[in-house]
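Reposting from the mailing list since nobody answered there.

I have sequence plus structure tokens for a pair of proteins and want to know whether others read the tokens the same way I do. The first protein:
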Amino acid sequence: LSVANHADSGESTVSYLADARLWTTVRPLIRRGDLVLIQLAHNDKTTDEATYRANLETLVAGVRERGGEPVLVTPIVRRWFNSDGTLNNGTALLVNGLGVDHPAVIRSVAVARDVSLIDLTAKTKALVESLGVEGSKALYLYNEKRDNTHTSVHGATVYASLVREELVSRHLVPEGQVRVG
């Protein structure tokens, strides 16, 4: 299997769809049978729910129109602990300033549009909480920059393995064609 990463740091669903270097360029590259992972949320800080939902639906429809198979992926949690050691707060769980619960909207679109879903929010929440305040620092750029949003190389590798495991367990990719590590 080969992977083509067409992400761009700092993009929201709004800017990704609007930037001619991104969706307009990526969409024609999708071929029949391509698996297309869609994960946008962290930068949709000012996107209202209707727009966010519509943008996700546009991406899903665009992938399907090209014969690809969309997979919606909820965002990773931010490392933002409550005093009780949980991440049960809007900052950690990606609820924007308008009250839009991004993971919930993604889950809803997946159900409504019959799209495969990888709930990376739930998986990363469980992992970060299990590691605790100190142990989870290594997953993020906390030690380097006091950054609780962006991952370290180690964190990116760990989180990518969670996605790989989900792709294999859901039979979206053949197990024998995906390397470990």
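The second protein, same order (residues first, tokens after):
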Amino acid sequence: IILKRYFFTIFTIIFIALMLFFQNEVFQGASSGLLLWFQTVLPTLLPFLILVNIMQKTSLIRQVSRLVYPALGPLFSVSTEGCFAVLTGFLCGYPVGAKVTSDLVRDGRISRQEGAYLLSFCNNTSPGFLAGFVVCQTIRDPSLVLGTMIVFFAVPILFSFLFRKIYSHKSVGWKSQPLIRTQRIVSLDLFDTSIMNGFETITKIGGYIIVFSVLLELTKMLPLADTLAGQIGLSFLEITNGVVILETLPFSFAVRYALIMGLCTFGGLCAAAQTSGMLTGSGLRILPYIIEKLAAAVAASLLAYFYIQISGM
């Protein structure tokens, strides 16, 4: 703990010093991060965050969970309300899955043990981001959309079978938790609270994106930043810039695609930091999550590589 405290203290001091000496790079990084947040993340995630907040405070969450439970419950072996975290984690993108999972734990809807299990596989990149930005805009090959989606869904589904055993999940199901009282209708007060909570979350996400965008610009000045290893390392700081960096590397397409899918599965250090911020007060730990995501990233890279080789692209 002491070493960890000294590490972050020294890192913060160095980071502040670099910001003072390289203000132009800081400005460029902060500008690009702000534009990324304002033009892409804000309009994409904020509506989902507001909707999720409303559903969690009303009986809608129970109705949606019961609706999808016959399909998701047996497949992932989760409780009824745990299905809501699976649904949002697969469809909404980082870090909504982590936010919903930690909210369910804090509200007492699911146990901390089930929350840790859910976090291991249901906090993922948005399918829209994969299909739109990664495949169509960056790789520029729409024919890969279907295969990419198969890899994207297959890895967390397969790993859920492994992680449920690690978390000592019994086949009879998770222990039911006492339900908290929810509203039956959406009132103006609830709508207002949900909006403010959504803006609080999206602002926190924006802060992480800006900080990591600045860090990316500063890291580019390091002596080894222009090397192949340096470029790969830089790509894992932030997923959007990282995908662009990986696509320009002098590798075969199969290797580039495999690296990109690995990055999208892991989410980058920025997504990990966002996830950590969502877990505050839930008792869920970030270190096991990072290890689990790295394992899934390796599996996704291998699966993506073999997919390209088999398909002959």
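Reply #1 (J.P.):
I read it the same way you do. The radius of gyration is 20 Å.
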